[in-house]
Every structure is written in C-alpha cells, then in structure tokens.
Amino acid sequence: MLKITNLKKGYGSKQILNGVELHVKKGEILGFVGSNGAGKTTTLNSITGILEPDEGTITINGIIKSGSTKYKKQFFFIPDTIHVFKNISGFDWIRFVMKLYDNDQTERMKHFITQFDMEEAMYKPMGTYSYGMLHKMMLIVGFTINPPIIIMDEPLNGLDPKSVLTFKKAIKLYIEEGGTVFFSTHLLDIAEKICNTVAILKDGKIILHEEIDKVVGENTLETIFMEKQNV
C-alpha cells in the first residue's frame, strides 16, 4: 500500500527526518504519533507532494511518488490547516474535487453530507464556515471519493462529539470497502480507540510500528508513548 524508504528532510542545518522507514498495509488505520517537532507534518507533506524530500522513496500501490495525476489519485489529504476558495459554496467545491478524481457518486456524497449535518451549510460560501465545518467538509469529500488511502493531519480538531461518532462510523465503512487510513494525531486516547496500528516517530525516525492490541496490552497507548520517549 504505502511504502516509505529512507526518507530524509532538513531545513538548513536542522535535520527533521533522519531516514524514515514505514510500510503501511491495506486495511490499516494507522495512528501516526510523535512529540512536537518529531517530523509528523513533514512526513505527511512529503508523501502528498507539498514538500520534496532530500532523500528517499515513497510509493502508494506500487506507484512511485511524482507530480502525476496517477499518483495523486491514490490518496486524499486532509491537512490540519485548510485553505479554501472563500466565495464558492461547499457543494460546488465538493463536486469540483469529485470530477478531479473521476468520481460521480452523488448519492454517496449526499449520504455523508447528511451524516455530518452539513445540508444547509453546503450551499453557503466556504468563507463563512467555522474551523470544525471545514474539517467536516474535507471528511465528506474524502469518504465520498473513496481513494485507496486517506491521509489525515489532526482531522478531529474542531469536531463536536456527534461528528466524532460519525467520523468513527465512516472510517469503519471505508475500511470495510478496502480503504487505508494514515492518521496523524496528538490525541493518544482517540488513536487508541480508532486505530488498529500505531507508528511512533521520534527524532525523525520510526521507533515503533505495531498493532495497537499487541503494543498496549494492559497499559494505555499514552503509557507506551511516554516510555518510548524515555519520560
């Protein structure tokens, strides 16, 4: 599915990624965790093409990372900071993205719009949306177009409890349909409940990638994380 080999990235004299090695298999809901500055966002931005790594290779479904449409259609990225066209409606934007992915599943789109309580907001300019509404809109798009992998950076930020529950149900459906999730978060308790695997990034390297049930046992993910940080 997603394979990262010897990924390195630095800014000036500061090295952020120091040879990241990670193989995410189909059907994983991967909780990608690490302390501030560990390199999580840099990793996500390298996978999605926002950044160009200094070294290393990235492939999704055997397709090597490039600026090609074929590579980009393998994933949908939900960033933490969402930039939008403020004067167009959410509905028009969703339809535009669906066309980019050659997707015309209108009924599926309507289903997720309803599930996330966005019926009225969809026809309003996106510049009027709250932070949480923007995240819900991105989730609607991701689950509608149904790509091989959805990559998320803190997607639960700003979501109300009902939307979090909807998010969990949507992920379950997405995985049952053959999807894969790469889910970066600081919320270890949420990662433990939603994800089936965890990868811990420390000092620009993956120090653990394992099934959560095997890692946690009678402990919590928070306890394991702190042990790995030598705290």
TrEMBL record:
Alphabetical keyword list: ATP-binding, Nucleotide-binding, Transport
Recorded superkingdom: Bacteria
PROSITE patterns given in the database record: ABC_TRANSPORTER_2 (PS50893)
Signal peptide limits: none
Any one Gene Ontology molecular-function term assigned to this protein's record: ATP binding
Gene3D superfamilies from the UniProt entry: P-loop containing nucleotide triphosphate hydrolases
CDD domains reported in the protein's UniProt record: ABC_DR_subfamily_A
Ranges where the ABC transporter domain occurs: 2-228
UniProt xrefs under InterPro entries: AAA+_ATPase, ABC_transporter-like_ATP-bd, ABC_Transporter_VariousFunc, P-loop_NTPase
UniProt cross-references to PANTHER family, sorted A to Z: ABC TRANSPORTER ATP-BINDING PROTEIN ALBC-RELATED (PTHR42939:SF1)
Descriptive protein name: ABC transporter ATP-binding protein
